[in-house]
Amino acid sequence: MAVLVLGATGMTGTPLVHQLLDGGHKVRIVVRSPDKFDKELLDNPNLTVLKAAVLDLKDNELKALTDDCDAVVSCLGHTMDLRGFFGNPRNLCTDVVDRVCDAIQRNNPKKPVRLILMNTVGVANPSVDQKRTLFERLVLTLLRHLVPPHRDNETAATFLRREIGKKGGAVEWCIVRPDSLINAQVSNYDVVEAPTTGIFSGRPTTRANVANLMMSLIETSTLWEKWKFRSPVIMDSL
Description:
Layout: E1 2-6, H1 13-22, E2 26-31, H2 39-42, E3 47-51, H3 59-66, E4 71-74, H4 82-86, H5 92-107, E5 113-118, H6 134-146, H7 148-164, E6 171-178, E7 180-182, E8 189-192, E9 204-206, H8 207-219, H9 221-227, E10 233-236
Parallel strand pairs: 1-2, 1-4, 2-3, 4-5, 5-6, 6-10, 7-9
Antiparallel strand pairs: 8-10
Helix pairs in contact: 1-8, 3-5, 5-7, 6-7, 8-9
């Protein structure tokens, strides 16, 4: 399968690229600094690298980039510093999802393209009754108004739910919401509809497991049919 990975140099994007290539998929990535990957990876004949910032691409370039893709995965996120939190682009995730969906729709693919958005468990799933304490609701409200990356995650998810919806057109989507992220190898993990813990007591989630779930959603039709148009939470198994 042909897969476009955005945010490929990130801490989840990198293991996803490795796993996809190990699985024999053709992978396209858009990165500003290809040298962050090892040479062996860059020499893989199934990897196509475009050196650019995604939002700097023109509409026709993004259209060509998504053409013939079976899936697009966005692992984009804001860097964890003051510039990443409060600098531009403040709506990175939302703007990229918007433009990618538009590019896919203009390509008019023969079958729907699977779009997977890596998000966060702090973003609510409105289709499920997620019970939050008063304090948790207060914290999330403050994050929404004071921390642009959190608001960006929310608006990106809202865009998919409201603007793309469940019409079954050119784009089918899934919003993957990991709990507390850690670095470790692939292990057993659980995928559920809603968080089983509070926002301050999350279960660890290995980044490699998040990558593995996203690859499985691309490869496995039954898994995709179960979770498309939904927002599953992934957590390492106890």
